[in-house]
Specification:
The complex is a heterodimer of chains A (479) and B (233). Chain A is built from 23 helices and twelve strands. Classes of the chains: A alpha/beta (479), B mainly alpha (233).
Chain lengths: 479, 233
């Protein structure tokens, strides 16, 4: 059964407010929602390790509200429901009341908090207003990970059938569909794209290359967000150019059974997260590859880098983000980038999934500074960056477009405008889509590109056309 | 009244202090149990040093002040300084510690202790005002958040009055008894309320550990809810 969820909640100025969220899918009947939610919560506490987390957090939450000034959504909306601590406390209240002795004792003596359908519906609303960027965690004196709690809340909601259609349809196709990827790109479609990319590289770079598919025993098995094959040919050609110029063309391959790095389980479901990871690792094992090389994509990189070791233990192959690989090639002198090609002012957007933990912050900057004369940073940057407003799966939800533009991405748009940059480098597929929409919405005088789109322009190709020649051709083509 | 004070200073102090120590030890024990037994196999990739560094950097939160948090952070920080230093290093308290533990701890000069106590009271009041009158603070506050601030204020106010009987409008004995009893109330509350962050401060910061999810748990939850094994095709 498919139906919209009607949310009733208090607005910032008080008073009831109705929301209809057409992006929510209620697969199961909405009867006994409260009982089913509590049952799901009980099983989650039984089999997962979330209980100690909830125990600790519900015992120490200081509710000091410092997170309020860190949240880009709250800064734009001013709606108190967007306070990270407020959202976290909805879940902690349920935990305290129904799953702790303190809560039970208190419920005997006072008018206790009661879980109702309204509360669950409010969760369906507020837990998907958050982009799970985890910026608030860095401003919490106690280090509360509100992102982790938001994700847990979304997981519990998904267990009673409340989850965005866009995410559910994608992961269903990825796990149970014929194509095993989120964009339904069939194997033949992939081969067509790869042959188009070969022709394009021949034309633009002057090298004849055939993309390696299903090669066994290679060092790197390449995964990118599958949507890149459809929407970001320059990023992929940039990746390929680096591999070719570095002399590693015979050391990588694309698997034909599974070529999608996307893992929406990261945003809302432990079950999906783990099974998509298993599917990815199976493909690497089938091809007897040594490493997993993930394209620029932020959430795909984090899902693989953080959760393959968690779920696969000793079977876990090492995970490399493409920007790490490119920097390594650059530092070892395997590739060279021409600093005279990209003359525009360039800035870099840190995708939350790879920057918040401090994993990939300086690598892309080192690459950019090596060949971009006019590179400017945003403020704040790196681990403290602002989310693009499309994180946590929100960018896939077309029905949230207006919300993403007017609220979630507003702070980011202002931040980009302040840099005066003509090119915004956004390495993550999700961020890229959101930022392109933001640039259009706010009519910002800049364009959004991947890091390897720029590298494609500036990389010296042994035996191919020179960078200057390519620049001239590109200018002619633009006319 | 003197008998009551002696009772509060003697057996009641011992019992409540023991409750606090044992309660906090239990909290630490639970956290170590979580880390070693439940998460033991998945701890090798946890960035312990950066987490420890983060924790330390928050003990002096100067570099964490962002626009809009200045007054609140300063008030909160000063309140914590007072709460840590005055109970431990006030001359009268140091005498008690030395008597109890046989140590020879240094004491804060009286004037400094007085200023710290007054600052703590002022800051706690300010935080109470924030919680009561600013919407976004009020919205996330539960009754315990207000009551615990009052519980922290009580021993400081009564203690200040007891140490300055000349300016206190209440009898010294009443103030002293209130001071001791309210401090003992705090001892008892500490392990069972959010005051437990006195020891959980670091353990709250280990979310990197909690992100290491348990393998197979998702499958088990799905199976329990649907009554069948849920497999990928």
């Amino acid at each position: 059964m498919e139906s919209a969820t009607v949310i009733q909640s208090k607005s910032a100025k008080g008073g009831p407010r109705n929301h209809v969220f057409p992006y929510h899918l209620l697969e199961t009947p909405s009867e006994n929602l409260v009982d089913r939610f509590l049952e799901a919560f009980a099983w989650v506490l039984e089999y997962t390790d979330y209980r100690p987390l909830l125990d600790t957090y519900s015992r120490t939450t200081a509710k000091c509200n410092r997170c309020a000034v860190a949240c880009p959504i709250l800064l734009a909306s001013g709606d108190p429901r967007d306070i990270p601590c407020y959202r976290t406390n909805i879940l902690l209240d349920i935990y305290r009341r129904y799953f702790t002795i303190d809560g039970w004792v208190k419920s005997r003596f006072t008018t206790p908090f009661e879980l109702t359908e309204d509360v669950i519906n409010e969760m369906g609303d507020v837990f998907y207003r958050c982009t799970v960027c985890r910026r608030c965690t860095r401003s919490c004196p106690l280090g509360f990970d509100h992102g982790l709690i938001t994700r847990l809340g979304r997981y519990l909601l998904s267990l009673v059938g409340i989850a965005p259609k866009a995410l559910q349809v994608s992961v269903e196709e990825q796990l149970h569909g014929e194509t095993h990827n989120t964009s339904k790109v069939p194997q033949k479609g992939l081969m067509d794209v790869l042959s188009f990319l070969s022709e394009e590289m021949d034309e633009r770079l002057g090298v004849e290359l055939e993309f390696p598919t299903d090669k066994v025993g290679r060092d790197h098995v390449f995964f990118c967000a599958v949507s890149d094959y459809l929407m970001e040919p320059d990023t992929l050609m940039g990746n390929a150019a680096v591999l070719y110029a570095a002399g590693d063309w015979d050391r990588w391959t694309i698997g034909l059974c599974n070529y999608d790095g996307i893992n929406y389980g990261l945003f809302y479901s432990d079950w999906h997260l783990e099974n998509i990871i298993k599917q990815l690792v199976s493909e690497v094992e089938r091809l007897r590859g040594r490493n997993i090389l993930i394209g620029e994509c932020g959430h795909a990189s984090r899902a693989a880098h953080d959760f393959i070791p968690t779920f696969m233990g000793k079977r876990a192959p090492p995970v490399l983000n493409f920007m790490e690989y490119t920097l390594d090639c650059l530092e070892r002198g395997k590739i060279s980038l021409d600093p005279g090609i990209v003359t525009e002012r360039v800035t870099y957007h840190d995708p939350c999934n790879i920057a918040r933990s401090g994993w990939i912050v300086e690598q892309p900057r080192k690459i950019l500074r090596s060949f971009i004369p006019d590179f400017v940073d945003m403020a704040p940057r790196g681990q403290d960056n602002f989310c693009c407003g499309g994180g946590g799966g929100l960018v896939s939800i077309d029905e949230m477009h207006e919300y993403r533009m007017e609220i979630a991405g507003k702070v980011k748009a202002e931040q980009i405008a302040r840099t005066g940059a003509e090119i915004v480098v956004a390495p993550c597929a999700n961020c890229k889509k959101q930022l392109k929409e933001l640039v259009e919405h706010y009519e910002l005088p800049c364009k959004v590109m991947g890091l390897h789109d720029l590298i494609l322009q500036a990389i010296e190709i042994p035996g191919g056309k020179s960078t200057a020649e390519r620049k001239e051709e590109a200018a002619l083509f633009a006319i | 009244m003197d008998g009551w004070i002696q009772f509060a200073k003697g057996p009641l102090f011992a019992v409540t202090f023991l409750v606090m120590v044992l309660g906090l030890a239990r909290q630490i024990g639970l956290q170590i149990y979580l880390l070693t037994v439940r998460k033991g196999k998945r701890l090798k990739d946890v960035p312990w040093s950066s987490m420890a560094r983060e924790t330390l950097s928050w003990t002096i939160p100067v570099r964490h002040i962002e626009p809009g948090t200045g007054v609140f952070s300063a008030a909160s920080f000063l309140m914590h300084i007072g709460i840590i230093l005055v109970p431990l290093f006030l001359v009268d308290h140091v005498a008690l510690w030395n008597q109890l533990l046989g140590t020879n701890l240094p004491a804060l000069p009286l004037g400094v202790a007085d200023v710290l106590a007054l600052l703590t009271i002022a800051c706690a009041f300010l935080l109470l005002v924030y919680r009561s009158f600013i919407t976004r603070h009020r919205l996330v506050s539960r009754p315990s958040d207000y009551l615990l601030l009052v519980a922290v204020l009580l021993p400081f106010i009564s203690g200040t009055m007891a140490s300055h009987p000349a300016v206190s409008p209440f009898p010294w004995e009443a103030m002293m008894l209130t001071h001791i009893l309210s401090a003992e109330l705090l001892f008892v509350l500490t392990p069972f309320t959010k005051l437990a962050h006195v020891v959980l401060f670091f353990f709250d910061r280990i979310s990197a550990v909690h992100w290491q999810l348990r393998p197979g748990a998702g499958d088990k939850v799905a199976q329990a809810l649907t009554g069948r094994e849920v497999k990928i095709s």
